[in-house]
Structures are given as C-alpha cells and as structure tokens.
Design a protein that fits this description.
- The complex is a heterodimer of chains A (about 260) and B (about 250).
- By secondary structure, chain A is α/β, with parallel strands linked by helices.
- Chain A folds into 2 domains: about 5-80 and about 160-264, P-loop containing nucleotide triphosphate hydrolases (Rossmann fold, 3-Layer(aba) Sandwich), CATH 3.40.50.300; about 90-155, no CATH class.
- Chain A has helices spanning about 50-60, 95-105, 110-125, 140-155, 170-190, 200-205, 240-264, and strands at about 5-15, 25-35, 40-45, 65-70, 75, 80-85, 160-165, 190-195, 210, 220-225.
- In chain A, the strands form 2 sheets. A 6-stranded mixed beta sheet of chain A has the order 6-7-8-3-9-10, sandwiched between helices. Chain A has a 4-stranded antiparallel beta sheet with strand order 2-1-4-5, covered by helices on one side.
- In chain A, helix 2 crosses helix 3 (about 110-125).
- The model of chain A has no long low-confidence stretch (mean pLDDT about 90).
- Chain B is mostly helical and about 250 residues long.
- Chain B has a single domain (about 40-250), classed as Orthogonal Bundle (MetI-like fold).
- Chain B has 11 helices and no strands.
- Chain B has helices spanning about 1-10, 15-25, 40-50, 55-85, 90-100, 110-115, 120-145, 150-155, 160-200, 205-215, 220-245.
- In chain B, helix 3 (about 40-50) crosses helix 11 (about 220-245) and helix 4 (about 55-85) runs parallel beside helix 7.
- The two termini of chain B are about 25 Å apart.
- In chain B, about 35% of the residues are buried.
- The chains are: A alpha/beta (about 260), B mainly alpha (about 250).
- At the A-B interface, strand 6 and helix 2 of A face helix 8 and helix 9 of B.
Amino acid sequence: MNGAAHIEIDRVSHTYRPVRGRPVLALDGISLSVRDREFLALLGPSGCGKSTLLYLVGGFLPVGEGSILVDSQPVAGPGPDRGIVFQHFALFPWKTVMQNVLYGLEKQGLPREERLRRAREHIDLVGLSGFEDSYPSQLSGGMKQRAAIARTLAIDPRVLLMDEPFGALDAQTRSLMQGELLRIWQRSRKTVIFVTHDVHEAVFLAERIAVMSARPGHVKEIVEARFDRDDPELARTPDFLEMVDHVWNLVRAEAIQADRSRVA
Amino acid sequence: MTERLGALLPRYAPLFLLALAWEGLTLSGIVPSAALPRLDTVATAWFGLAESGELWTNAVASISRGASGLGLAIACGSLIGVLMAWYKPVRIAVNPIVQFFYPMPKSALIPVMVLWLGFGDASKVVLIFVGCLLPVTLSAFNGARGTEEVLIWSARSMGASRARVLWEVVVPSALPELLSGIRTALALSFVLLVSSEFIVARQGLGYMIGWLGDGGAYDAMFAVVLTVALLGFAADRGYLMLARRILAWRE
C-alpha cells in the first residue's frame, strides 16, 4: 500500500479560454486542504468549477494562478499517485476488462505474475469476476464503472479523484455503488476527492463536504459529516436527514444563482 | 457452412436474375450481339483466356500494382493523419495541401505520371498511391482528432508517456474511422488501376480490356470486365470481414 496523501490547494484561479467567445473565470482564488486519508466531497451546482478543480489536482489542466501541493510536492502533470474515475467511465473500448485493469499495472513495470495477481484481486474486489474477458460495450453502466474503479485502484494511487462517478447510473445502481465505494474505501483508506452535485450522495459518503459557490467557484462553507457509516440504517437516522437538509440549504442559493446566470 | 450458403443464395438472387435477363435479351436478338455479346460466349471466352494463362499474368500484374500503391497509401496516410491530429505544426503545414488536392480527380494525373515515370509499373503504383493517400490521411486525421480527452487523461494518469498515449490511445481511437477511409481508398484504387492501365500500359487487366475491345473481341473484353468486377467485389467483401474482426470490440 502506498498509503494516502494530503493536498493543499492555495488561492487557485482558473480561466477557460474557448477558441470562440469570451474567457470564462471558472475558479476564483479557491483554497482548500484535504487531509491524509480523508473522504472529501466537492459539492456545488453544475458549472461551479468543481470538476475543473479536480482536473487541476489531477494535473490534466495547468495550474496558472496559485498552487496545488500533493504531499508538499507541486502538481506538474498527471501521475499514477493520483488515480481518477470519470463520470463516463473512460475505459479503453478496444480492451477487455482484464486488459483495461492491466494497462496501468504494465506502466508500473511490475512483473507479469504480480500484474495478473493484482488485476484479478481488484476485479474481484469490485465484483466483476467472470467478466474479465468482456469488452466495455458488453457491460452495463454500473459494471463499466466498477471496471473503471478496479483499473484505478489496481495501481494503488495515494489519492483517488472521482468526477461524478455515479452521475451516469440509474438510481438503484447508484445507491448500490455508493455502498460498495464506502466498503472499498474503508479497506484501503485513500485520500478521496469526490465531485458531485447530489447532496444526499455527498452526505452519505464524505467525512467533510466542501460546498462551492456558483461560478466563479470558491469554497462557500465546509461541513463536517461524521457518522457511523457501518450503520446500515444511517440514511434514515434523524441526524443524517438533518445534515442533508442543512447542506441542501447551503447549496440551494448557489444553485438558483447558477441557474439565473445561465439564462443571462 | 451449408446454412450460410443457404442464406447467401437468396441475397444474391437479383444478380442471378440480371444474368438471366442479359442472356434473354441477347438470345432473343433485342440487343444486337455487337453491342452486348451473349453471356455464354463471354463465359467461353473467359475459360479461353484463363486456359491460355493470359488472364492470370495480367491479373497478377494489376493486383500487385494495386496492392503496392494502396499499401503505401495506407502506411503513409495513417501516419500523416495521426501526426496531423497530434502535432499542431504538422497540421498547420499539411492541412491546406490536403484540403486543396482532396477534391481533384486523380485520373487527371495519369499523363503526368507517364511523363515522369514512363509506361511501366511505377507510374501506376504512384498514381494509386497519390490517389488513395488523401482519403486515408483524412480519415486517420478525423479519427485521431475524435479521440476522447478522458481516455488520454486516463492513460496519462496511469503513467503513460505522451508518445505511448499516441500509439496506445490515439491510434486505436482512430481505427474505426480509418478503416472506413481505407475502404473508400480500396474502391478508388480499382478505378485508378483500371483507367490508368487502359490508357497507358503493356500489361494488366485494364490494358487487356483496351486491346480486346480495339480488336473487336467483345466477348473476351466482357470476360475481363466481369473479372475486374468480381475482383473488386471480392476485395471489398474480404476487407469488410477483416475490418469487422479488427473492430470486434465495438459489438
């Protein structure tokens, strides 16, 4: 196990410069620290820049203003210490589940036996045993996302970046996958940044929730959501429901503003 | 196997009916045999050409020209197209040239090729190469440009270098579009092959059509025309089967 990492986001701004049209300020001096082994949700209305922030931490977009440190090292491009799971899975469609999971392991330069062992272990972990030789096109949405999670976890990143990973799934599958993710996270305890616009999902999964403002995004408030997540009835307890209500009230104003600015 | 044959027969029944209509029209004298020879004399002429070996030597000459020109076009076009998509300087340098020459009818180059390269194989191979290069290049370019950004990001975040991403992500992403561009090029290669041989050659199926027609051997000429049609059809079918195998993951 590589363990986990802490992340320091310090006054980061980001401007999108489309080929046509005016530049858009997506993030405006956002600061946030994510603790070692913490599950943090980035919650906000669509277009608030939460995915942009995740891509900056991932190193997919250059950090222009401000700084992002992962274990005190500035981010300079993508790397296997930060694994990512995308909303639309991003599996290689020409590779089978097994080949997809093996891809990252090959890049780590592990011996063949070890690669196969770790791939099987992680396919098993996400409950996809028996589908090793299936192509993504043969899998349901939920299974695709399981495969993508297995692929990312197999390379044992210290940080897990999740970009609305369950947003493309139907409600039942989403709720199943949330439970599975918690189970997996409790075993591996990585630092997780989980982007979502679903208040219930954020409260259910995350220890802390960073509520973001409408664009240009900054952190409006950070909410601690400490619950006993082994409790199967958690989502029905009064404390939980009260927390959902509290967070929803924080988000609502921003969602309304985001919606208005889209019309204008 | 018999099951597949059973499915194929009804599918190609219209072709059979067309052959019957041909035979009927010529036998009844509605169409004079000078314009359209009877199908059975065409068949006889075909066996004559096959037996003498003429058909085969000329077919081999044509096929090797076509395969060389097309093969070169596929190799170079794929490379240029992918590099255009991946490196902006290449795109800026090459794109205007591709755009300008793409709509030009490549048969216009036949006299130029003869002037430069003479009457041998080279003029035909280069003509087919030039003609097929642009459809392959454009399809490789469009396919590679359509690579999903998240696939590139995924590979990069798993530790792949940029060069690796080009080969392991961009090229496979381009494959469906590239393969359909190659199919277009394959059909085009037949057009260019036969028309160039028809005009300037001392060997090849197009050349045969030319001199058989000039000599008034219309049944033999039609036999060669039908051979070219059959070759083109077989090449296209064979290619489709190959492409389907390569893209089996798409389902």
